[in-house]
Amino acid sequence: MRLTLGYAALFVVSTLALFVLTSALLLGYMRERDRAYTRARLDDFAGAYARAGVAGVARAANALRSDDRGEELLVRVSDRNNRTLFLVPPEDWSVAEFRDLALRPTEPGARVLVQSAGRTETVEVVAVRLADGVRLEAGMSSDERDDVVESFPDTFIAVSLPTLLLALLGGAFMGQRAVRPVRRLSETMRSIIETGNVGERAPRAPARGEIGELYRLFDLTFDRVEALIAGLRNTLDDVAHDLRTPLTRIRGVAEVALHDGRDEEGYREALADVVEASESASATLDAIIDVGEAEAGARELRLENVSVGKLLFGVSELYADAAEVRGVSLVVDAPDDIVVPADRALLGRVVANLVDNAVKYGGPGGHVVLGARQDEKHVLIEVRDDGPGIPAADLPRIWDRHFRSDGSRSERGLGLGLSLVRAGVEAHGGYATVHSVEGEGATFTVHLRRAVG
């Protein structure tokens, strides 16, 4: 209704403005037309006077009386003393009404408006001076012009009223058409609020225009909300699943310590077990949160230009002791000039998880190579080992949460490392791949966009 009334109000204002403008243009056009007609007749009368004097002017003026426009014409000839020699008034005017012309002579070329008492119309008089001092005056009555101008509002209203009705109908139609998709969107949002089903979407989104863009943004927003909720549910499930074991262990150790009579050393051992289980629970919770944030895109990246070579050297130093214990050698093969825009902490965590897996599953005498190279668009970070490799059947599933192949079940871990790798790389707008031949090792490659400039 507001849109319809708005359309109608806009039409009314536009119509009034059009009426004022059209009236002014019409009046100006008719006034200029009358002036042109008057000037043309003055030239004719001047020629008639040159040929036959006042009698010639009289014959020319009387000849115009049969013409509708000629009937509205004033013709006056006066001598040097402004005495009237000949006068023909416009139709319905009397000679007496123009006697004041003798008192207010018009200058050649000047226009004088003459209006008699009781009349609304006027006569615009123009004079020319002839060679012998005689002044010739002519003027058009505004009667015809006034009739047209006075009838114009009625004609305009007669045309505007049906147009206003059409405007109201058109406004109602356009308003309904404009509001309908917004109403559908509002109903969908109300349904989502009432039912909590964030997977519901508004039907039949317009293909183009601002409303279509609104629909697309609506769908993108709730796609993101749905993904965040799914990620939250997965995270809560993981918390419930992975914290159960350390919490059960803490409870069991505490109950046994309380019920058994132990010496001081026994209680110390029980407390050490509780601390170890607590640290395990804390590490599990941190890993789950990191994976959840990275997968949902909820982690705010602090991007900076990171030297890949320095990052790989730092990770190798971090795992140097663990690699030495297992008899695995760490080798860094990366130039110093490769730079990538990344969150230093998250990218370091990604590489560390890959190195942790490579060291953990590598045998004595094995090698782990941390390499980096770049092409025109990407920076490639590789972690390559010569360990037992990954069975081909397990390759499609290694990125899933909690998945652990048969060969890795003997090692301690949560199965979240590669999930964090994939989520962290995707958070940077990249992707991770793996190539492995069973018995020959595996190569994990991280593909990231190069730094610009």
Structure, described:
This protein starts with a helix and ends with a strand. A hairpin with an 8-residue loop joins β3 (111-114) and β4. The chain folds into three domains: 2-148, PAS domain (Beta-Lactamase); 209-296, Helix Hairpins (Orthogonal Bundle), CATH 1.10.287; 303-449, Histidine kinase-like ATPase, C-terminal domain (Heat Shock Protein 90). It has eleven helices and twelve strands. 56% of the residues lie in helices and 17% in strands. α1 packs antiparallel against α4, α6 (244-259) runs antiparallel to α7 (264-296) and α7 runs parallel beside α11 (417-427). It is rod-shaped, with a radius of gyration of 50 Å. Strands 2-1-5-4-3 form a five-stranded antiparallel β-sheet. The protein has a five-stranded mixed β-sheet with strand order 7-9-10-12-11, with helices on one face. By secondary structure, it is α+β, with helices and mostly antiparallel strands.
Question: Main traits of this protein?
Answer:
453 residues, alpha+beta, Beta-Lactamase, Helix Hairpins, Heat Shock Protein 90, 3 domains, five-stranded antiparallel beta sheet, five-stranded mixed beta sheet, 11 helices, 12 strands
